[in-house]
Amino acid sequence: MKFTVIAAAALAALSVTAASAQTTLKIGSEGAYPPFNTKDTAGNVVGFDIDIAQAMCAEMKVTCTVVTQDWDGMIPALVNKKFDFVSASMSITEERQKVVNFTDPYYSNKLQFVAKKGTELSVKPEDLKKKIIGAQRATIAAEWIEKNIGAGTNVKLYDTQENAWLDLEAGRTDAVLADAFLSYDWLQSPTGKNFEFKDKPVFDDDKIGMAVRKEDKELLAKLNAALKKVIESGTYDTINKKYFPFSIR
Predict the structure, then answer these.
(1) Is the pLDDT of residue 91 over 60?
(2) For the whole prediction, is pTM greater than 0.85?
(3) Could you report the per-residue pLDDT of 96-142, keeping only the tens digit for each?
(4) Which residues, if any, are the signal sequence (predicted)?
């Protein structure tokens, strides 16, 4: 009887150790937000968010795979354990922090309007109410528009940022509000060459982090430690230069 109890305790301890020594993780990302996360010709999710997350996984010595998820269902999918953490250019907001925890910021962004070259655009709310404005749904850009312009017929919210760009290019909107670094990449593309930033950023303190479930405190600590090593080793700067000719930290 004594041997059986000891053996059972030993097996339980081994089970706990195995559970805590997780060797694989799933990264949640959208795959429709270039250059941060998008799909290549083979259907693989690539981009700045993914490169940074995979560098962190290498530091943690775990194998990570990417699971795609529509943007507006990202946090519910994380909470329901579809994946282990989110690397999808998610802004750290008080509202989101009620549901999930975030790592230290891995880059900073700002919101700025984009419109056709040669057109005038005042970013004063009273002037924007006279324009048709677009943004991606469930983003801080959409939140800014709803707070400052309203949710009338002159506001169009899209399921993906790519669809917001398509309507702007087609002339179905007068301007789009989006993350400046995201917009920078689009403005360098053939489809964005006839557009430009307008006026100053309307919000310039957007901190981006990776989201984890509230209960996954150990994973959060490991991710933060890995991010620190990725930055200190110079790997972060190498990835940054792959996508931008300037630092986005």
Answers:
(1) yes
(2) yes
(3) 999 999 999 999 999 999 999 999 999 999 999 999 999 999 999 99
(4) 1-21
Quickly list DSSP for the chain: -HHHHHHHHHHHHHHHHHHHS--EEEEEE-SEETTTEEE-TTS-EESHHHHHHHHHHHHHT-EEEEEE--GGGHHHHHHTTSSSEEEEEEE--HHHHTTEEE-S-SEEEEEEEEEETT-----SHHHHTTS-EEEETTSHHHHHHHHHT-SSTTEEEESSHHHHHHHHHHTS-SEEEEEHHHHHHHHTSGGGTTEEEEEEEEEEEEEEEEEEETT-HHHHHHHHHHHHHHHHTTHHHHHHHHH-SS---
- Residues of the chain within CATH 3.40.190.10 domain(s) are 23-108+206-243, 109-205
Q: Which two tokens stand for residue 64?
A: 């990570």
Q: Which residue has the tokens 């699971």?
A: 67
Which of 68, 95, 62 minimizes the C-alpha distance to 225? 62
Express as a percent the part of the chain with pLDDT over 90: 90
By percentage, how much of the chain surpasses pLDDT 70? 92
pLDDT digit string (tens) for 28-84?
A: 999 999 999 999 999 999 999 999 999 999 999 999 999 999 999 999 999 999 999
The CATH architecture annotation of domain 109-205 reads: 3-Layer(aba) Sandwich (3.40)
Tokens of 239: 């990835």
Q: What is the pLDDT of residue 150?
A: 87
